[in-house]
Design brief:
Elements (H helix, E strand, L loop, with lengths): L1 H28 L11 H27 L29 H17 L4 H17 L10
Helix pairs in contact: 1-2, 3-4
């Protein structure tokens, strides 16, 4: 994880330098422009935001690394599979509800692109899929 933190900080510094170079390059390339028009704002702000987002991920990973108290077993090359064996939750490999949910998103997006009459159909399928996925273990063979 430490190498990930370093990579994200390198990316943040890189894009900050690129943003400054982009701005200076545009100012020097167009000396006839005056005032705020000398700066090409879309590219400059985009590159700055990329630098800030990279720094944000670097800060998050750094805080996570410090909060977990060192390296995780997944990050140690000499670790065994059993070293990092926590309870990850309950998963349903046989569940069809995620595919129904994806189909509802597909119908909704096709409705946005093609015809708006599909939007309520996509929302209805979405509601059925969410309820079905949430209450999957409340009925039938797998009830709790």
């Amino acid at each position: 994880m430490r190498s990930n933190i370093v990579v994200w900080w390198i990316l943040a510094v890189f894009f900050l330098v690129v943003s400054a170079a982009y701005t200076v390059w545009h100012v020097l390339a167009y000396p006839e422009l005056v005032g705020a028009a000398k700066v090409e704002w879309v590219g400059t702000i985009s590159l700055l935001f990329i630098a800030f987002m990279s720094a944000m991920i670097g800060v998050y990973l750094d805080r996570t690394y410090k909060a977990q108290g060192g390296e995780l077993p997944e990050d140690i090359l000499t670790a065994d599979i059993d070293d990092g064996d926590p309870e990850l939750g309950e998963f349903s490999p046989w569940s069809w509800w995620p595919m129904v949910l994806a189909a509802s998103a597909g119908v909704f997006l096709v409705g946005m692109a093609v015809g708006q009459f599909l939007l309520p159909i996509g929302v209805a399928i979405f509601l059925v899929a969410i309820v079905g996925w949430v209450y999957e273990y409340y009925r039938g063979h797998f009830a709790r």
